[in-house]
Amino acid sequence: MSPLVKIRSERDRMSAVERRIADFILENAQLLRDYSSQQLANALGISQSSVVKFTQKLGFRGYPDLKYSVGEAIGRTDEELPAAGRSPGDTVSAELWVRKTRAEEATRALNEADTMTAVVTALGRADKVFVAGPGEDDHHARAFAARLALLGITAICHADLGRMATDVATSRPGDVLILFSEHGRHPAFAKLARYMRERRGRVITVSRHTANPLRSMADLALVVAAHDDASHVQALVYQSTLQHLMDIVFVHLCEGDETRHQRLVENLDRIQHLLEP
């Protein structure tokens, strides 16, 4: 993972001093090669040891290792950016693609293989899967529930959380509740999670890569890294990265079981038949 992508994705989980270092690096990445660890510390008014600890916490051997890695990342980014002479539309398109690619790269790295396997296994074994998401997350919740249904997995999705609470009350051990919540702070979702745990079901959350109340209640947590300095772009990056993450889960479900794959083919054929004149 690019060090700049890693810093962005981890920023919300950092201490105040660490965020100051992170922001300086993100805002002055091009100039970092001219700074020693002591000069960086002086610029921020902190100790040199704080800088060293910051780099080691990110997984680097030391500050020189971080500086070298940032330089390499900038070089790759320069190669990815659109060439001069393109139209403004082409430039916007290419830059947006680069931003989305970075977010997807960070998201893949954050969701470890063991977590993805556990999520796919839980969904595949559940008798029923309950799916919910507030606001814009409702779109992703409904889309994912529809895909589960194509695979022959019983999926129940409601925007009405009162109805969802009633349905969750019918769950059995091993059933799954998957909650889409960008910021993980919806109070009703915390209650739904508790209801599901009481029924000995499993709770899967999908949210931003931040320390949020809902994520702390999850048996399994999928996270989305989608930081961007431009607020209007950040929202787009989050939506596309979340979609890509759930696409990966769907593909694993589809390819991991021949029976599910056959059900998908049969259901797609049925839908096509219904649409024919």
UniProtKB/TrEMBL annotation:
<keyword id="KW-0238">DNA-binding</keyword>
<dbReference type="Pfam" id="PF01418">
    <property type="entry name" value="HTH_6"/>
</dbReference>
<feature type="domain" description="SIS">
    <location>
        <begin position="119"/>
        <end position="259"/>
    </location>
</feature>
<feature type="domain" description="HTH rpiR-type">
    <location>
        <begin position="1"/>
        <end position="77"/>
    </location>
</feature>
<dbReference type="InterPro" id="IPR009057">
    <property type="entry name" value="Homeodomain-like_sf"/>
</dbReference>
<dbReference type="GO" id="GO:1901135">
    <property type="term" value="P:carbohydrate derivative metabolic process"/>
</dbReference>
<dbReference type="InterPro" id="IPR001347">
    <property type="entry name" value="SIS_dom"/>
</dbReference>
<dbReference type="GO" id="GO:0003700">
    <property type="term" value="F:DNA-binding transcription factor activity"/>
</dbReference>
<protein>
    <submittedName>
        <fullName>MurR/RpiR family transcriptional regulator</fullName>
    </submittedName>
</protein>
<dbReference type="GO" id="GO:0097367">
    <property type="term" value="F:carbohydrate derivative binding"/>
</dbReference>
<keyword id="KW-0804">Transcription</keyword>
<dbReference type="GO" id="GO:0003677">
    <property type="term" value="F:DNA binding"/>
</dbReference>
<dbReference type="InterPro" id="IPR000281">
    <property type="entry name" value="HTH_RpiR"/>
</dbReference>
<keyword id="KW-0805">Transcription regulation</keyword>
<dbReference type="InterPro" id="IPR036388">
    <property type="entry name" value="WH-like_DNA-bd_sf"/>
</dbReference>
<dbReference type="Pfam" id="PF01380">
    <property type="entry name" value="SIS"/>
</dbReference>
<dbReference type="InterPro" id="IPR047640">
    <property type="entry name" value="RpiR-like"/>
</dbReference>
<dbReference type="InterPro" id="IPR046348">
    <property type="entry name" value="SIS_dom_sf"/>
</dbReference>
<dbReference type="InterPro" id="IPR035472">
    <property type="entry name" value="RpiR-like_SIS"/>
</dbReference>
